[in-house]
Automatic annotation (TrEMBL):
PROSITE patterns: MFS. Residues 116-561 form the Major facilitator superfamily (MFS) profile domain. CDD domains: MFS_Tpo1_MDR_like (cd17323). GO terms for molecular function: transmembrane transporter activity. Residues 43-70 are annotated as: Disordered. It is found in: Membrane. It comes from the Eukaryota. One of its GO terms (cellular component) is plasma membrane. This is Major facilitator superfamily (MFS) profile domain-containing protein. The chain crosses the membrane at residues 114-133, 145-169, 181-201, 207-229, 241-262, 274-301, 348-367, 387-407, 444-463, 475-496, 508-530, 536-557. Pfam families: MFS_1 (PF07690).
């Protein structure tokens, strides 16, 4: 709905621009006194003809290569075509009227930009919840299908593998069809396959539907960074991206809480985990259709170019997307190639991807391991074990306390960089920061606060998980894990985006695919891991692995500028910004 309204609004704006454009005679001189209904133009054959049928189309001056009309319209850049067949022709590249053009999503009101961000966050929450909610009823699933816990855990694992697979395609699709089309279309198919999983007659059908649901559920996670970048400047993202991360992380973490007592009584069967996701998805889908605007600026300019061509009859009005003739298959193939090539050459991407993979392995093996940690050792019921996930989300939420102080520190650095350019006043103009670059290492503050807490929490939980020790010990330890985990997530994304600029999509694509593939596999491995190694050794091993990764943000904070100088793709620090 919002996309359609934006399309119509662009048409009205173009119509008004053409009506207000000054008339031109055949030589290109402005004729402000010429009546709109009887414009005299030069035809392609070189003779004059009075036209009265379409006042707007009459304003297109086809007799000269550089149309005076195009010169008079704001936001139009005239470029010469490098075409051997027509060396003297020109094209009119459609752009925004100025940096404050209200139709540019970047200039939407604060309330509208925040609503768009929160709707994407809600989408991420529900597809994340779908990944883990089945783990809350694992005993009921294994009983219903007559399989082992290892096989039953595939219900979570294949969904994550679907996430990883879909991540390969959703990013390029959002840059062709737009963010809104991908969100709405993928959510529609996601709901269909979630409904299929609720009605699945056997485990094979259940796994197939879960895998397909994962494929179509990934866009809110893989494209959200692009949506946030469409709406907020680099300093504003210091607040808005943590909001997105903290709220969306509630999806997988709180999913077992949603399923706490489902399937354990005669009130709701275990299939209601899927029905709840379907109902919530439907409600969010309605909100997205009604209130989510299209935020991908190149697509909006493509619509604007289409309106200009239709109203003037001049095919030379084109947007950047109109001139990009790369097919979807070639774009996807190129994105896949870049994801792996850039990764093998970049130690920053390799180490951060490895760090995120370790965290996701720990997190998603918890969905199987919590039964051993709390049920087997402390005798909690299935429902209470699921409720204990609230503690982890409390820790995730507490990371929000870091947002304002880190925002102030980041603003200090951005302001210094802006003043170094030309004495820009960043307080009075948010566009002042559009082309200002500060060291990406400022994004690592979240990680430096949270990294040590990951191994501390795992050792704490592993070494105190005894029946003789209060159950509150592992519960509090899990909140520390949640705090550290979300801090690493926030810094990883923001650091990669600031470090790699136009190559960030490829880097983030590899990070997404690698961590979900690993998490999907380890979800299945987690059951025998906890059973055979025991809670204490399992958490100790995971704690040791995460301890090895703790120095990563500190090393990058200290030596990141040097490492980026060696890089083929990372941003350099020599150029602070330009206005």
């Amino acid at each position: 709905m919002q996309s359609y309204l934006q399309y119509r609004q662009l048409g009205h704006v173009v119509h008004k621009q053409l009506e207000n454009a000054p008339e031109h005679d055949a030589t290109g001189a402005v004729n402000v006194d010429a009546p709109v209904g009887a414009t005299s133009v030069l035809s392609n054959q070189g003779h004059r003809a009075d036209q009265t049928t379409n006042p707007l189309s009459q304003k297109a001056s086809h007799g000269s290569e550089k149309s005076p009309l195009a010169q008079s319209l704001p936001g139009i850049e005239i470029q010469k075509q490098l075409d051997a067949s027509s060396p003297n022709s020109h094209i009119f590249v459609v752009g925004w009227e100025g940096e404050n053009d209200p139709l540019n999503p970047y200039n939407f009101s604060y309330a509208r930009r925040m609503v768009a961000t929160l709707l994407v966050t809600a989408l991420a929450f529900i597809v994340g919840a779908a990944s883990a909610i089945e783990s809350g009823v694992l005993p009921q699933i294994t009983e219903a299908y007559g399989v082992s816990e290892v096989v039953g855990s595939l219900v979570t694992g294949v969904y994550l593998l679907g996430f990883a697979t879909g991540s390969l395609f959703s990013g390029p699709l959002s840059e062709i069809l737009g963010r809104n089309s991908v969100y709405a279309g993928s959510l529609t198919l996601f709901m269909i396959f979630i409904m299929g999983s609720a009605l699945a007659p056997n485990l094979g059908a259940q796994l197939a539907f879960r895998f397909l649901a994962g494929i179509f559920g990934c866009p809110p996670l893989t494209c959200a960074g692009g949506t946030i970048a469409d709406l907020w400047n680099p300093l504003e993202k210091t607040i808005t991206f943590p909001i997105y991360a903290i709220l969306s992380f509630g999806g997988p973490v709180l999913a077992p809480v949603i399923a706490s007592f489902i399937g354990q009584t005669g009130v709701l069967s275990w299939e209601w985990t899927a029905w709840i996701i379907l109902i919530a998805s439907g409600a969010i889908f309605v909100l997205v259709l009604l209130f989510q605007p299209e935020t991908y600026a190149p697509l909006l300019l493509k619509w604007k170019g289409k309106h200009l061509r239709q109203k003037t009859g001049d095919p030379r009005f084109r947007s950047a997307m109109d001139m990009d003739k790369v097919s979807l298959l070639h774009r996807i193939a190129g994105a896949l190639k870049r994801q792996f090539l850039i990764t093998f050459h970049e130690p920053i991407i390799l180490l951060i991807s490895l760090y995120m993979t370790v965290l996701y392995i720990v997190l998603f093996t918890f969905f199987d391991g919590y039964a051993d940690i709390f049920t087997e050792v402390h005798g909690l019921s299935q429902g209470l074990t699921n409720i204990s996930w609230v503690a982890m989300y409390i820790g995730i939420s507490l990371a929000g306390l870091l947002v304002l102080p880190i925002y102030r520190w980041t603003k200090r650095d951005f302001t210094a960089a802006a003043e170094e350019v030309n004495g820009i006043d960043t307080a009075s103009d948010r566009h002042a920061l559009d082309n200002v670059h500060t060291k990406p290492e400022v994004r690592l503050w979240f990680a430096m606060f949270g990294a040590p807490l990951i191994p501390i929490s795992l050792f704490w939980m592993g070494w105190t998980d005894f029946a003789s020790v209060s159950i509150w010990s592992p519960i509090v330890a899990s909140s520390f894990f949640g705090f550290g985990c979300i801090c690493i997530f926030i810094s990883s994304y923001m650091y990669i985006i600031d470090s790699y600029g136009i190559y960030a999509a490829s880097a983030l694509g590899f990070m997404t695919v690698s961590r979900y593939f690993a998490a999907g596999g380890m979800t299945v491995v987690g059951v025998p891991f906890y059973k055979n190694m025991g809670v204490h050794w399992t958490l100790t091993i995971l704690g040791c692995i995460s301890a090895i990764m703790v120095p990563v943000p500190y090393v990058f904070y200290r030596y990141g500028p040097v490492i980026r100088k060696w890089s083929r793709y990372a941003a350099a620090d020599e150029v602070k910004g330009s206005v």
